[in-house]
Every structure is written in C-alpha cells, then in structure tokens.
C-alpha cells in the first residue's frame, strides 16, 4: 500500500511538473538533471587530472573549470587588454587577450566586486545562471514553432548535448547563447527594436554581429518576398533594416576598438590568426580559404589524399544546406533556418577547422528542434544516452589535459 502511494505521488509530482502551464518547472528539472550528470563527469575528470599549465594535480571543480580560455578571461577581468600587441621571434603577432571579447569577463568582474568571490567561482556562477536562462528561453523559442512536448525535448537535447559541459565553466558560451536565443525570440516575434540592445551586448560577447546581420538581411528579403501573403508594414521594414545595419556595424565594432587601442588596423584579425599558425603558419585572412587549408593540413596528418578531404568537405557543405530545405528542417520555421544557414556560412568564411570547431557549432542549436521531432521513447532515450556518452568523449578529448595537449576545447 505504501509502495502504491509512493508511485502515485511520484506520478502526480511528475504530471504537475510537466503540465503545459508550468513549462518552466519542467525546463528547470531538465536543466538540474543535466547539470548533475555533467558536474559528475567534470569532477571525475578533475580527480584524474595531472599537473598542467593551469592547475596542479587533482584540482577542485572551480580550478578545473577555469583552464584553457578561462585563464584568458581571468587575465582580462583583472588586467584588461594590452595596448601593445605581443610579437613573436619571427615578427608576427602572438596569442593575446584581444581574441576574447569583453562582455563576459567584465560581468564576472562585477560579480567578483559585489560578492568578493574569486574569479573561478564567480565565472562559473555567471555561466550557470546564463545557461539556465538559455534553457528557459530556448523552450520559448522552440514552442513558437513546435508542440510543447517536442519543444521540451529539444531543451533536453540542448542541456545534455555532448558539449554542454561548456555551459558551466569559465567560458563566454552560455552568456552568448542566452543572448542569441533571446535575439532569435525577438526576431521571431517581429520585435525588431528590442533586438538592438541584445545585438549590442551579444556582439561583444562572442563574434556574432556579421552572422546575425546576414540572418537579419535574409529575413528582410524573405518578408519582402512574401509581403502579399504576410503583411510587412512600413514601420516593421524600417525597424528590421535598422536592426540589420546595426548588427553589421557591431560586427566590426571589436575590430575597430582593438585597432584604436593598439594602433594596428589588423590587431584583431592578426591575433585570431596567431591561433591557427601552429597548423598552417602565418598568413592573411582570406574568406573561405581556411577550410581548404584545413583539408590540406589534416590530409597530411592522417596521410590521406588532399583531394579526398576536399571532396568530402564540399559534399558535407552541400548536404548540410540541402538538409535545411527538407521537410523535417522546415518544421523549425524560416527564421531559425536562416540563422543556421547564416552562421554556417560565417564559420566557413572565417574559422579554421580543428578541435575548437565543435564548440563553435553550438550556435546551431535550433537543429535540436529537428532532432526532437521523432516521438519514439526508445529513440529519445537512445539520443540522450548518446549525448551523455558524447559529453564523456568531448571532455576526454578537448577539456581534460593529457600531457602535451593539441586538442583545445
């Protein structure tokens, strides 16, 4: 009898959490469950972490969460940005803080000042808070185009995704994803003026202004194209075009700030190129060239014909954009697909493919809505299990430091 009462109580509690009007409770429950899993994985890897460039052996959670780029954000939060660019022995610009935008470390510094917490704890607090905000906003976005249950499972995919560990370490991704999801929400609601402050902060959190400007521009073109079917009144045209131009300007803002402070017009791009010099040497930033350079580099690394990787790259790109016009992809709506296409083009234009690329794919999160479409319980359970296994694999490959580590997150 007691067992039956317990089961009944659990079922009632579960039904209350999953009730449509209490969607936020369901999202929080999913988020908390995912953080328990991810924290457990990170703690296990921390327990076997050896001496490395950032910590001693067996670091505590917060020290382990502050490694890699987290250390750059720590430097920025305390010392800001250099007015003179560091130069290598060969005369090229070396790796430096200008590669990392200021919104996240500035906010962490504010939290440090208000709470007296040290950087490691304050940065994780900020990241986790924005992660929860991102999960809540993601449900709102997905529920604009998908049924409640499907939108909720899309949130589960986001929270348990292979790279979801990045949401609770000293990285700017969680803050950026929250702002991006909020921006897409306002875009889908046609609240273009509300986009301006979000774009302003988002563009100095992670590189995003140019990609979002492209998505907005395509959105304007699309709304003009279907204006007879869906009204596109003049006040909305003005607001949408203004938001597009503002995002375009903000896409160059950090580059211009870096140039003004350092006196070098190419300070930001030279700094970014320093990170790929270990793969392909120093050179100029040529749009869309990096992925073909990467094909050449990785072909040599894996001892494969370069033409084979080049053909595979082209085939993968064509297949990806072809996928965006399939019926399952159409279920997430035009606006989200325009963002996915725009961001993918942006990645192809400016980034070099290596282990960090997996992290850079996180803004393609709307595709979680497509993955969430099948209703099979077995499929959904298997997908979440694969996500958790992917977390272990990614932390092992990219976050955990194993001697001389060439696979940064």
UniProtKB/TrEMBL annotation:
Membrane topology type: Multi-pass membrane protein
Pathway(s) it belongs to: Glycolipid biosynthesis; glycosylphosphatidylinositol-anchor biosynthesis
Record's GO cellular component terms: mannosyltransferase complex; membrane
Any one of the GO BP annotations: GPI anchor biosynthetic process
Subcellular location: Endoplasmic reticulum membrane
Top-level taxon of origin: Bacteria
GO molecular function annotation: alpha-1,6-mannosyltransferase activity; GPI mannosyltransferase activity
rRNA-binding listed as a keyword: no
Transmembrane domains' residue ranges: 23-46, 119-139, 144-163, 169-188, 209-226, 238-267, 279-301, 307-324, 336-352, 381-401
Keywords: Endoplasmic reticulum, Glycosyltransferase, GPI-anchor biosynthesis, Membrane, Transferase, Transmembrane, Transmembrane helix
Annotated protein name in UniProt: Mannosyltransferase PIG-V
